[in-house]
């Protein structure tokens, strides 16, 4: 629900009945005199959004002044007070049914606590200024802000409970207060604004409202102020019991009291609800991110890459290097580079990494260089970029270095251990076995492919001379010193149909480019196999496999020439991990059905692959570390009608520049994305979201923001690179930015989400459903609605570097450059 209606209520109610009128454009023109066509278009889109049918449930309990009662409408039970019920019926008549506009209008009643709080803030700020139509419409671009792995962990259940309290401070002064929620060792209270409190202050609380029915200690309970918040006419205090005032009998009383009344007064689900929402978005992020996380050990002051974490989106980056002889990926992380990256960690201090490969005499020669290395030698810098960009294997990567710790792998639930054995198991620390594998992890490097064909043409235009090619040898990968292997680890994701693998040996035969190779299966699953080959091969993308021994077991299925996609192979290229290619078609479908039946009938006889299970557990632990150290903003978009709207944005640390624009003049807990979603840039961006496939590679967009030095926090101009007709216009844009202030460039990586996987927070979702089933349904609906994930990567250094060199118009460029190897 939006914080404010983007159209004035009077105008909205006047226009809604005209929505289906063929003269709507004329009605809008009369209602919004002086407005532009784009502003009227946005108003029309807003009216259509408000008229969209709503499937949500309204529950105003605890949100309004007044008693709420159940009200049945269209097989859904809403909880409304008398004012809200009257407005609900009025809006139903206006809209002709339960729509998004009805839902939002009911939440805007004057007795709503949130509305009263906003009115109080507006009154303190003075009389509101007039807003034009564009400003009103921009409010719809507010997105909720979240932080990954930043949810509160509760040791105990908190129960919503309101009673009268008497509080004594350190000066022995007494004042009255009201409780909000209660736990065995904590308390949240509300009092007036006549006093000021500081964290650490000691208070004594007397439960006067309970003394009428229970015999309590007359000396009260000692508490310490943990957090204060001032809202409207009240001060809200979060308190913890002091360690010198613990009383086992009082603990037992509170525990029994909460357990006996929590179904009547309801437990406080706020932090659990926020945690489930964040975990759902974390799960989307980790499965679609295109960055390759590489975890670095720091043992005896020696840095060495240890693990890398794979998902379906970053496989192509990994396979590009795995196909190279000896798996060249380890050469990118040579000790000298790692030490430089370690010296300046952070999202904004990212480095750039360039690489290419050339072939000579049947051999591959690989080269790589970081921008921080090339800057020290301008001639090498120009030669490397010009020559490398002419090779088909040219790649450009951003490198982001973050400090991490193995302790970040511990991700307990937000539920207390007292709820049972299942929750205690979830809250256990990371196992000693996994911690021993990760005990030396100190750094995480995110490697992201930002190769761009238009940028390549600029690099290719740089002057190049044969006499300078020997300079490249300093950046060559050594051929006689194989790099240290990096263990590739995957994590389990139910929606991607990860399957248990079973140990089973059987003869098979591969066919690659007309050549047959004998092999033996090491493990199998319904849609995948691992094969050990008798001889080494260069793995193609797709190959065929025939299962002679399995074919002897069945005449029902044809198990010859089954197409498989190569997903992974070892350094010797003799062990392949394969996945069925197009399993819903032809012989692939027959193979999937055969292996499904085979495993279903023999699961008790077959042993699961222990290495696979260990790898999944390690992958889960590394995934938690990666999420904790997320370096880039991540925007989640939902579909509304024919367009998309911003729902939530996950923010990284404060060192990233992009969130500064989002948070400028935005309400607390929200980000204003109007600069990205309005005007020509916004229309272009929304158009690019259409047609995305859940299985396709990420779609890359390049965003430019011109920042005015005279107006910090505000953008002067926002546009996408593809909106410019040519690179010359981009060059002039940079010149304009340098005159006005600065230019910031971002790569937006767009991917479509799959279905949500709730296995990671299933216990918390069941807990919410137990006490507020309507909230659990709303939460699941919200996660299902998330359709697009947009990672926002700062590439300002690469763009400025791209235009830093100017190709000489009359440069004598040779068309026959010799290989430097």
UniProtKB/TrEMBL annotation:
<dbReference type="GO" id="GO:0035438">
    <property type="term" value="F:cyclic-di-GMP binding"/>
</dbReference>
<feature type="domain" description="PilZ">
    <location>
        <begin position="496"/>
        <end position="579"/>
    </location>
</feature>
<feature type="domain" description="PilZ">
    <location>
        <begin position="153"/>
        <end position="238"/>
    </location>
</feature>
<protein>
    <submittedName>
        <fullName>PilZ domain-containing protein</fullName>
    </submittedName>
</protein>
<dbReference type="Pfam" id="PF07238">
    <property type="entry name" value="PilZ"/>
</dbReference>
<dbReference type="InterPro" id="IPR009875">
    <property type="entry name" value="PilZ_domain"/>
</dbReference>
């Amino acid at each position: 629900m939006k914080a404010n209606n983007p159209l004035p209520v009077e105008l909205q109610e006047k226009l809604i009945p005209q929505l289906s009128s063929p003269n709507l454009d004329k009605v809008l023109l009369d209602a919004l005199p002086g407005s532009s066509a784009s502003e009227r278009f946005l108003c029309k889109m807003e009216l259509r959004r408000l008229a969209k049918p709503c499937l949500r449930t309204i529950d105003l309990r605890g949100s309004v002044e007044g008693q709420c009662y159940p009200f049945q409408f269209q097989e859904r039970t809403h909880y409304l007070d008398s004012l809200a019920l009257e407005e609900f019926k009025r809006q139903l008549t206006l809209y002709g049914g339960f729509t998004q506009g009805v839902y939002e209008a009911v939440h805007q009643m004057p007795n709503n606590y949130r509305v009263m709080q906003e009115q109080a803030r507006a009154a303190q700020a003075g009389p509101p200024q007039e807003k034009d139509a564009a400003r009103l419409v921009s409010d719809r671009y507010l997105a909720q802000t979240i932080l990954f792995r930043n949810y509160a962990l509760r040791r105990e259940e908190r129960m919503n409970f309101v009673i009268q309290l008497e509080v004594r401070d350190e000066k022995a002064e007494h004042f009255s207060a009201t409780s909000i929620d209660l736990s065995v060792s904590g308390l949240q209270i509300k009092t007036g604004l006549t006093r000021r409190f500081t964290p650490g202050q000691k208070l004594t609380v007397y439960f006067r409202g309970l003394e009428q029915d229970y015999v309590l200690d007359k000396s009260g309970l000692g508490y310490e102020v943990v957090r204060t918040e001032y809202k409207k006419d009240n001060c809200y205090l979060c308190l913890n019991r002091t360690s010198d005032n613990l009383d086992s009998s009082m603990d037992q009383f509170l525990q029994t009291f909460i357990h006996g009344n929590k179904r009547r007064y309801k437990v406080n689900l706020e932090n659990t609800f926020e945690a489930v929402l964040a975990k759902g978005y974390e799960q989307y992020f980790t499965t679609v991110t295109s960055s390759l996380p590489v975890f670095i050990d720091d043992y005896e002051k020696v840095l060495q890459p240890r693990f890398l974490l794979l998902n379906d989106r970053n496989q192509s980056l990994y396979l590009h290097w795995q196909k190279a002889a000896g798996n060249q990926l380890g050469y990118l992380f040579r000790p000298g580079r790692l030490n430089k990256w370690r010296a300046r960690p952070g999202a904004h201090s990212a480095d750039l990494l360039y690489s290419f490969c050339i072939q000579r005499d049947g051999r591959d020669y690989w080269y790589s260089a970081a921008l921080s290395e090339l800057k020290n030698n301008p001639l090498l810098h120009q030669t490397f970029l010009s020559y490398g960009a002419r090779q088909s294997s040219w790649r450009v990567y951003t490198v982001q270095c973050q400090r991490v710790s193995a302790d970040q792998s511990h991700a307990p639930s937000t539920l207390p251990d007292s709820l049972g054995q299942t929750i205690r198991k979830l809250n256990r620390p990371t196992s000693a076995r996994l911690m021993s594998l990760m005990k030396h992890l100190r750094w995480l490097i995110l490697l992201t492919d930002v190769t761009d064909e238009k940028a390549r043409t600029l690099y290719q235009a740089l002057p190049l001379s044969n006499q300078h090619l020997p300079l490249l040898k300093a950046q060559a990968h050594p051929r006689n010193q194989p790099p240290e292997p990096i263990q590739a680890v995957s994590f389990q994701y139910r929606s991607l149909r990860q399957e248990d693998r079973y140990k089973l040996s059987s003869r098979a035969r591969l066919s690659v480019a007309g050549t047959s190779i004998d092999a033996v299966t090491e493990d199998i699953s319904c849609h995948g196999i691992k094969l050990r080959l008798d001889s080494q091969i260069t793995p193609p993308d797709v190959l065929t496999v025939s299962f002679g021994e399995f074919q002897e077991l069945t005449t029902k299925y044809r198990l010859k020439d089954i197409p498989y996609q190569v997903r992974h192979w070892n350094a010797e290229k003799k062990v392949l991990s394969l996945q069925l290619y197009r399993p819903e078609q032809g012989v692939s479908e027959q193979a999937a059905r055969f292996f499904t039946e085979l495993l279903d009938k023999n699961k008790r006889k077959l042993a699961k692959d222990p290495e696979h299970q260990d790898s999944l557990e390690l992958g889960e632990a590394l995934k938690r570390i990666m999420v904790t150290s997320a370096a880039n903003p991540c925007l989640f978009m939902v579909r509304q009608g024919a367009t998309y709207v911003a729902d939530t944005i996950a923010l990284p640390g404060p060192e990233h520049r992009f969130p500064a624009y989002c948070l400028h003049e935005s309400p607390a807990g929200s980000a204003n994305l109007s600069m990205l979603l309005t005007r020509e840039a916004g229309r272009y961006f929304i158009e690019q979201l259409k047609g995305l496939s859940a299985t396709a590679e990420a779609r890359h967009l390049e965003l430019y923001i011109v920042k005015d030095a005279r107006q910090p926090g505000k953008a002067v101009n926002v546009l996408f690179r593809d909106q410019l007709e040519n690179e010359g216009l981009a060059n002039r844009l940079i010149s304009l930015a340098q005159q006005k202030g600065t230019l910031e460039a971002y790569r937006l990586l767009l991917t479509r989400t799959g279905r949500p996987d709730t296995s990671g927070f299933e216990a918390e979702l069941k807990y919410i459903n137990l006490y507020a089933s309507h909230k659990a349904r709303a939460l699941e609906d919200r996660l299902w609605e998330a359709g697009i994930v947009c990672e926002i990567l700062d590439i300002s250094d690469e763009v400025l570097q791209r235009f830093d060199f100017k190709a000489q118009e009359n440069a004598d460029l040779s068309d026959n450059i010799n290989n430097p190897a």
